[in-house]
């Protein structure tokens, strides 16, 4: 299982903070398409992605137990 | 007490500055980000900040490391607040100490620009007319994947 974290507008659109997905061995891109399909998250293409708190590319492969986060455009400061 | 913190509480400027005071330093530069009322003619009522706190602290620490690589004698501390902030509240305080002032000025500018590029913190504007999550880092488009290289992200 892979734990997906949603923040800001993604959290609001999906109506939840986390999603558990069976995605070990799959790419980040796969997880993104699952979320788009099932959770009304059409803006995910604007996001960056992290696995276990490090930014990664879309083709990175997930391991069981990984935490993936979709990071909307940031606006701290 | 870590030099890189996300907090839900009021930020003491003094506390952040104290983290970088040391005998080797002859200069400390601070940057303080506050909540602005008017943006492009729109009146903000208040802001909500949200963070991926653990990753945000890790990325702020990375900015500290980047600064120490670029300015070897620099020391950095950053605290960013989350939750509801009113007009003029302090959202972020960063302090950089260096032996000589030029480096402190440059490094503090570098720190806030990097925060706006890659630290997972989000700001929601609340107006009379509605509310919206803002993604205003340099070139929001840069966050479309593929246009930012790993080098950009990892410094």
UniProtKB/TrEMBL annotation, chain A:
Instruction: Name the Gene Ontology biological process terms.
Output: Mo-molybdopterin cofactor biosynthetic process
Quick check: keyword Nucleotide-binding in the entry? yes
Q: Could you list this entry's UniProt keywords, alphabetically sorted.
A: Molybdenum cofactor biosynthesis, Nucleotide-binding
Listed GO MF terms: nucleotide binding
Q: Record's Gene Ontology CC terms?
A: molybdopterin adenylyltransferase complex
Q: Name one Pfam family in it.
A: ThiS
- Top-rank taxon of the source lineage equals Bacteria
Q: Which InterPro entries match?
A: Beta-grasp_dom_sf, MoaD_arc-typ, MOCS2A, Mopterin_synth/thiamin_S_b, ThiS/MoaD-like
Hey, which pathway is this one from? Cofactor biosynthesis; molybdopterin biosynthesis
The family note in this entry says: Belongs to the MoaD family.
State its role. Answer: Involved in sulfur transfer in the conversion of molybdopterin precursor Z to molybdopterin.
Q: What is this protein called?
A: Molybdopterin synthase sulfur carrier subunit
Native source organism of the sequence: Pontibacillus halophilus JSM 076056 = DSM 19796
């Amino acid at each position: 299982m892979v734990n997906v974290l949603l923040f800001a507008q993604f959290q609001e659109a999906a109506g939840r903070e986390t999603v558990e997905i069976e995605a070990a061995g799959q790419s980040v891109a796969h997880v993104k398409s699952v979320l788009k399909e099932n959770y009304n998250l059409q803006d995910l293409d604007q996001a960056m992605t992290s696995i276990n708190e490090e930014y990664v590319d879309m083709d990175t492969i997930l391991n069981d137990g990984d935490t993936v986060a979709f990071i909307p455009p940031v606006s701290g400061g | 007490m870590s030099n890189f913190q996300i907090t839900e509480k009021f930020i003491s400027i003094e506390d952040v500055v104290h983290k970088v005071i040391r005998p080797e330093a002859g200069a400390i530069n601070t940057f303080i980000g506050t909540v602005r009322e008017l943006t492009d003619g729109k009146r903000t009522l208040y802001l909500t900040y949200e963070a991926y706190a653990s990753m945000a602290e890790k990325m702020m620490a990375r900015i500290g490391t980047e600064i120490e690589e670029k300015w070897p004698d620099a020391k950095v501390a950053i605290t960013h607040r989350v939750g509801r902030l009113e007009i003029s509240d302090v959202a972020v305080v960063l302090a950089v100490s260096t032996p000589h002032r030029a480096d402190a000025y440059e490094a503090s500018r570098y720190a806030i620009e990097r925060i706006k590029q890659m630290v997972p913190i989000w700001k929601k504007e609340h107006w009379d007319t509605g509310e919206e999550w803002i993604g205003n880092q340099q070139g929001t488009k840069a966050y479309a994947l593929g246009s930012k290289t790993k080098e950009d992200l990892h410094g």
